[in-house]
Amino acid sequence: MPLTPPSTIERSDFVLRALSPAHAVQLRAALAASDAHLRAWTPWVVDGRVPGLSLEQRLAQHAAKFAAGEEWVYGLFSLDGTEVLGGCGIYPRVGPSALEVGYWLAVGHTGRGLATRAAWTLTEVAFTDPSIDRVEIHCDHGNTASARVPERLGYRIIEDAPGEPSHHLQRWRLTRPEFVARTQPSDRYTRPCDSFGAR
Q1: What span, in angstroms and rounded, lies between the C-alpha atoms of 80 and 97?
Q2: In terms of CB atoms within 10 Å, which end of the chain has fewer, N or C?
Q3: Residue in 118, 148, 113, 150 with CA at minimum distance from that of residue 134
Q4: Contact criterion met (CB below 8 Å) for 142 and 72
């Protein structure tokens, strides 16, 4: 069956919610506070990949693409839903039978394993589609903290990947057999995601 991720995924210390214009205020606050932190490695998170769109328009596009099954972008929210801790998504832009998982964290929320747990959650979601043979993570060559995420999750570094101007990306990959065979990460990073906690 094709990939049909839930719009809400609950974990022990955060909630993933499909982004929509209703989240503009919270997301704007997180982006404003994290501008310098994000711009160093992922300027497109702050500015958007399509110039000239307002944040509300960008979020409307995310919501429309989620509903259409074209890509799945989530906000990473605090358990009470009041704060955006970061974001993550699943993107069908790395070739046939493959998906890419991306993630970012707002300033003040790094170093807690949130990106690792969110990336693993979406890796599990991606492999619920039996047509998917591999999942990839791309991160800036100089962003060692970000690169520790796929490394912890058993991804293997493959090669450099095309990136934004002035950003040199590493390409990490986890194949389906590797995903099936590997031991679940310890509870320090994640917990099993059988039902995705969807509701």
Answers
A1: 36
A2: N
A3: 150
A4: no
How does the average pLDDT of the chain come out, rounded? 87
- Biggest alpha carbon–alpha carbon distance for the chain: 45
Are residues 160 and 153 in contact, defined by beta-carbon separation less than 8 angstroms? Answer: no
Positions of E strands within 47-146: 72-77, 84-91, 98-105, 134-140
Please give the average per-residue pLDDT across 35-40, as a whole number: 86
pTM: 0.86
What's the pLDDT tens digit per position in 10-24? Answer: 999 999 999 999 999
Tokens of 193: 């995601």
Write the pLDDT tens digit of every residue in 93-124: 999 999 999 999 999 999 999 999 999 999 99
Strand partners, 160: 170
Evaluate whether 52 touches 61 at the Cβ level (below 8 Å).
no
Q: What are phi and psi of 68, to 5 degrees?
A: -85, -5
Tokens of 121: 């959650």
Q: What is residue 189's predicted lDDT score, i.e. its pLDDT? A: 38
Tokens 């394993």 belong to: 113
Q: In whole angstroms, what is the distance from residue 118 CA to residue 116 CA?
A: 6
**What is the number of other CB atoms lying within 10 angstroms of the CB of residue 15?**
18
In a 3-state reduction of DSSP, which class is residue 68?
Answer: helix
